[in-house]
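Researcher: First entry.
Model:
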Amino acid sequence: MPNSTSQRVLKTPSVYTKSHYLYVQEAGTLKSLTPHVSRREHLESFLFFIVTEGRGFVTWQDSYYPLQAGDCVFLDCRTAYSHESSREFPWTLMWVHFHGPQADSFYHLYLEREGSPVFTPASLSPYKEILQILFEQQSSSDALSDLLSHRYLTDLISQIFLDAFQNQASGLPDKFRSIREYLEAHYTEKLSLDQLSEIFYISKYHLLREYKRLFGSTIQNDITSKRLTKAKSLLRFSRESVEEIALSCGFQTSSYFIKVFKQYENLTPLEYRRKW
């Protein structure tokens, strides 16, 4: 007697697709008939699945996570994992295994922001729709099939981030909300970690760590990004010199401004002004 009934489709992407896109390795649905354990490790893949019916569990990084209908699971399969359906309440799953040049970076950011391998969104509907499209897309031989799969995998990851972190965003500590607002108002001024630490009565080491965790970027990167964005606007829509723009945007010298601008844009400020 089979343990489950399933529909699955496997896909072998082109060399170009593997080098440039997120791509599907396998997608499908499964309805468990009897309990059985699936175990894998050292698999070069990322797995996302949803539980549409029933219950079960997943283990990953030596942690045990009970699952029920409405839960989502997002795993790096290079780490050993297993999952099993409940005997009393057999589950039904929809899943996709995927990979690609950006997949590891997305997952690293997910964990860095303290994303959990298991989360429960307000609704499974967006996931069901995307997973169904991805399943159907793999049977297509259309020239745009790989590009469309990349698009829907990107949609899937975006939805995961939105749902996994919505509670975190709504629960943002008031102190860090105030710090972010302060940076918005004062980014053109000379700022230091010691200064921020004194203003907000917080250890600078705690400030660095928690800011990166909550916002996905360092304080210095955020400040630099804001300064460069203002500088690009002035380069395009004002007659101010590079020296004037550097000082008005918070850079201490024009030479440092030019160096940082080129690092981010691969153009000097004057080259940017001419091109745009």
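Researcher: Second entry.
Model:
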Amino acid sequence: MNKKYCKNESFLKDTHNRFRDIGRIFEIAWDFFKGFNRLRRIGPCVTVFGSARFKEGDEYYELARKVRKKLGEAGYAVMTGGGPGVMEAANRGAKDAGAMSIGCNIILPQEQSLNPFTDINISFDYFFIRKVMLVKYSNAFILMPGGFGTLDEMFETLTLIQTETIKDFPVIAIGSEYWKELRPFMEKTMIKHGTIDPDDLDLIHITDDLDEVIAIIDHC
């Protein structure tokens, strides 16, 4: 198993002595420093999330490429998790448009490997640090069809917005056929049981109109 992945597993699983914990603090600080140092001057940027499993030629791969090309033409740098699938398509679309293309990568036992379409790429040892960078240096999130990781990023970001930890941060889901059960679930289950407020439905936009995507991001 990859050494970087072992760090994540060890961090959450193992019990260490005081000296090992102190050493881990320095490892975490170094991971943060790498991100801060490489990303602090990237300018307006939008992050795209989505599955690593879609291949070139798949409708969502090609849609992600169009989305990122549109964002690049609008003047936004493009950031992804740096891997294959939708992430590769988004970085590739940014390159097609001549926009800055950024990958914040993490090594996993399967699926994740850095795609070749990035101008800036950083490999992080820890998941949570990578997630901080993807929010901190982004003006908006675009969610393409994806799995648990995409849903994790969606709901963590919506929580940050709901609690006003971040403001004026649009979250946009593209691929309405894929996301069609999301709003009914929120309305019929979450609102019904009082776990979210009706106004929270407005925290996420679902659209397939790429011009509307740009308008939403520009407005914020």
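Model: Note on the second entry: The mean pLDDT is 89.
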